TrEMBL record:
Protein name: mitogen-activated protein kinase kinase kinase
Superkingdom, natural source: Eukaryota
SH3 domain span: 410-473
Reactions catalysed: L-threonyl-[protein] + ATP = O-phospho-L-threonyl-[protein] + ADP + H(+); L-seryl-[protein] + ATP = O-phospho-L-seryl-[protein] + ADP + H(+)
GO molecular function, one term: ATP binding
Organism of this sequence: Mycena metata
Protein EC: 2.7.11.25
C-alpha cells in the first residue's frame, strides 16, 4: 500500500466500523460473528498503524491532515491506545502518543475521547488566577471539580500560542496516573462558549503552602516524601515537570500531596526530542543552568536535574514558608544562584531542618546538574519516618535483611505499602496498604522484585511490584 492509501485506510476505519455495526444490526447477525469481524478489523488497523509509526513518509503524510480527517485519525489512534492494543509493544504506544501530539499541534484539535459533558454549576467568578488562565469551581458527576479556563481576551498569535500550550498540557496530563499526581478528568467545552477548560478534582485544602499555614508544619516530611514520589513517577515516564514550586502542589482529601500544573512540562531529551525549552517559569525555583545557560555553555532546556534542583527549593520553601532568597528581587536571587550561592541552613522555625535533611537539600541544589541525584534517590532520601512501633518492627526486620526469600534471592531491605495494588500482569502480586514486602531486586525501571512477609498470601511465581506504591520501612 502507498503512504496515502495507508493513511486513508486509518482515517476511514472509524466510519467503516460504524457501517459494519449498522449492517450487522439490520441483518440480525449474531454477536460472535460481529465480534470476529471487529477483531479482524482491529488487528488490520493495528498493523497499519505500526507500519505508519515506523515509516517517516507516512508520518509526514499524516501531519498534513486537516479538519475532519485529522480528527478521525486522532480518534482512531486514541481508541487503539485506550484499548491497550500496544500493551505488548510499549515503544509503539509511545510513538503513537507522540504522533497524536504532533498532529494536535498542527491542526489545533484534540482526540474526542478527552471531552466530557455534564459539567454544571460553574461559579461566576474564578477562585484563583494564573498567568493566562483562571480556576473556577463547578460540579461534575456529583463531585466538586476545578475548571482550568484559558482566558478569552487573548487575540491573534498569542491566542494560538496559548491554545497550543493548552493542547500540549492536556495530552501530557491525561496519561498521568499516580497517587501523587492531580488526576485529569477531561476537557469541558460547554461552560465557556468560546474556549475550553481542563477539568480536575477540586481539592479543598488548596496548595501545600495554604495547608501548612492552616494546619502547621508537623507533616512537612510526609508531604515532601509524597512530592518526591510524584516527581519520580514523572521522570519514570520521561517527563520533566518544569515548574515545581509550592503553589503548584495541592493537598487532597486524604491529606496527601499532588503535583499539578503541567503547562511547562515536557519530555526528557533523548526520548522524544521534545524538551521543554520555553523560558517561562519562576526564577526563585529555577536551576542556575536555566537562569544563565551561556554560563554553563549549554542551551536553555528543562531537565530531570533542573526538577531535582527545584525540589531542593521546595524543601526550603515548605519548612520556612518562603522560597530561597525571597528577601531579594528576582534579579538579585538569580545573580546569587548563578554565582553558586545558596541560603544558609535556617536555625529557627518549628520543625527545624535537620542536619541530615540539609545535607540532602545541598545535594539537590548543587551547582553542577550532573552531580544532582536522580529522583529515585531523592525518594529514598526523603522516606517519611515510621512510627515508634514501626521503627521497632523495622529494626527487627532489617536486622534480618541479609536473609533469603523463598526463591533463594538475597533480601536487600523491607518496604511498606502505602496503597492497595491490584496486579496487572502474571508476574505481579496484589498487596494492600500496610503490607510489608521483602525486596530482593531494584531495577532502574521502578518495577522491583520481592515477596510479602505474610507467607499465607504469597503466590508462587508472582514477585514483581511497583516501587512507587511503597516506602522504606
Amino acid at each position: 500500500m502507498t503512504s496515502g492509501s495507508i493513511v486513508s485506510a486509518i482515517v476511514d476505519s472509524s466510519k467503516n466500523r460504524k457501517i459494519l455495526l449498522e449492517v450487522a444490526s439490520q441483518l440480525g447477525l449474531n454477536d460472535f460473528n460481529v465480534r470476529t469481524a471487529l477483531r479482524a478489523d482491529e488487528e488490520r488497523l493495528v498493523a497499519l498503524l505500526v507500519s505508519a509509526l515506523e515509516t517517516k513518509p507516512i508520518q509526514n503524510s499524516i501531519l498534513t491532515l486537516e479538519d475532519d480527517s485529522a480528527q478521525c485519525f486522532m480518534d482512531v489512534v486514541q481508541d487503539v491506545l485506550d484499548k491497550g492494543c500496544f500493551s505488548m509493544a510499549p515503544e509503539h504506544g509511545s510513538k503513537a502518543r507522540r504522533l497524536i501530539r504532533k498532529l494536535s499541534e498542527s491542526c489545533e484539535r484534540l482526540p474526542s475521547a478527552l471531552f466530557i459533558t455534564g459539567v454544571s454549576g460553574r461559579e461566576e467568578h474564578p477562585t484563583f488566577g494564573g498567568g493566562f488562565g483562571d480556576i473556577y469551581q463547578a460540579s461534575y458527576d456529583n463531585h466538586v471539580v476545578a475548571l482550568k479556563h484559558m482566558r478569552h481576551f487573548l487575540r491573534g498569535a498569542e491566542l494560538r500560542r496559548i491554545r497550543l500550550k493548552f493542547c500540549r498540557e492536556a495530552l501530557l496530563w491525561k496519561d498521568l496516573h499516580h497517587p501523587h499526581i492531580l488526576p485529569f478528568i477531561g476537557i469541558d467545552r460547554e461552560s465557556f462558549p468560546a474556549s475550553l477548560c481542563m477539568v480536575s478534582p477540586w481539592l479543598e485544602h488548596g496548595t501545600v503552602l495554604k495547608y501548612l499555614n492552616d494546619h502547621g508544619r508537623q507533616n512537612v516530611d510526609k508531604l515532601l516524601f509524597e512530592i518526591a514520589q510524584g516527581l519520580e513517577y514523572l521522570h519514570s515516564q520521561n517527563i520533566v515537570h518544569g515548574d515545581l514550586r509550592g503553589s503548584n502542589i495541592l493537598v487532597n482529601k486524604d491529606w496527601s500531596a499532588c503535583l499539578a500544573d503541567f503547562g511547562l512540562s515536557g519530555f526528557s531529551e533523548g526520548t522524544t526530542g521534545q524538551t521543554s525549552s520555553k523560558r517561562a517559569g519562576s526564577a526563585y525555583w529555577m536551576a542556575p543552568e536555566l537562569l544563565a545557560p551561556e554560563h554553563f555553555e549549554t542551551k536553555f532546556s528543562r531537565t530531570p536535574a533542573s526538577d531535582v534542583y527545584a525540589f531542593g527549593c521546595i524543601c526550603f520553601e515548605l519548612y520556612t514558608g518562603r522560597p530561597p532568597f525571597s528577601e531579594l528581587s528576582e534579579v538579585g536571587a538569580m545573580l546569587k544562584v548563578v554565582d553558586g550561592k545558596r541560603p544558609q541552613q535556617p536555625s529557627d522555625g518549628t520543625p527545624v531542618i535537620t542536619d541530615l535533611l540539609w545535607h540532602n537539600i545541598s545535594t539537590y541544589w548543587v551547582q553542577k546538574p550532573t552531580a544532582r541525584p536522580l529522583a529515585k534517590v531523592v525518594v529514598r532520601n526523603m522516606a517519611w519516618p515510621a512510627s515508634e512501633q514501626e521503627t521497632s518492627t523495622s529494626s527487627n526486620l532489617n536486622g534480618e535483611a541479609q536473609g533469603e526469600a523463598d526463591g533463594g534471592s538475597m533480601i536487600l531491605f523491607h518496604v511498606k505499602a502505602l496503597y492497595d495494588y491490584e496486579a496487572t500482569i502474571d508476574e505481579e502480586f496484589d498487596f494492600q496498604a500496610g503490607d510489608v514486602i521483602a525486596v530482593t531486586a531494584t531495577p532502574d525501571d521502578g518495577w522491583w522484585s520481592g515477596e510479602l512477609i505474610d507467607e499465607n498470601r504469597r503466590v508462587s511465581g508472582k514477585h514483581i511490584f511497583p516501587s512507587n506504591f511503597v516506602r522504606l520501612f
